[in-house]
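Please, structure for the following, as tokens.
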Amino acid sequence: MSDTTEKLQKVLARAGLGSRREMETAIAQGRIKVNGTVATLGDRIEIRDRVSVDDRPVTLRAAEEVPRRVIMYNKPEGELCTRKDPEGRRTVFDRLPRLKGERWIAIGRLDINTSGLLLFTTDGELANKLMHPSTQVEREYAVRVMGEVSKEQIVAMVEGVMLEDGPARFTDVQEFGGEGINTWFHVVLMEGRNREVRRLWESQGLTVSRLKRVRYGNIFLDKRAKAGEWTELTQDEINDLAAMAGVAARKVPELTPDEKNRWSRDKRKRKPVQTLRKPRARR
């Protein structure tokens, strides 16, 4: 086996066609061909191989050739983390700047009733590494809880509880002000399972009435992006994310004049969403 081969789903994700998991699904569905033959899970390929998706050829690129862009998006409640919704509801991708020959890949997800920080990148390898449980990236949330919260309940959630899909715990819980039905906490956990924050509180008989992600790894949600807005991360911020993911740093390419004009128009067209004031994230 040649040292230049890579897993098929990894190369497809790098080409901007979606996440590795999405590409694995496409392979399992028989939608991918390599050199004219239907691919199977586990196949490895070289950059010079001919690959098609749904019989359309795909341009493959080596890792160092892929532009690494990352944007921070402030998701409002009510938006879905999917590319298209059969019911026509708004998705997070509706507000993102348009790309030519590339695709935004979401780094993690938030459910429809959760707002706050979402990261998107053009680099499938970076996205995959940051989402993988072994990378142990901290996610921090501001949580408004209905009901009286006892010290014993907080201790239980930090020590760990058994949910239907396995054990779960917060690595930190801090009260953040308010009282009664308007009490806010900040919580930190190291994974992104479906509705995990809400389910941890529900395990203690408590209901989360508002939930907002305020940090992902070293990236804090800040005033650069109001609800419904995005901003491109700086070179230093992207380098920090790359270091956390264990991938080599790369220079973020300058936007071409056409991209600058297109992104500027996209920003002007997408007005920010008016939302209730939330507590500020801890630094």
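Helices lie at 8-14, 20-28, 124-131, 151-159, 196-202, 235-245, 257-269. Residues 257-269 form the longest helix (13 residues).
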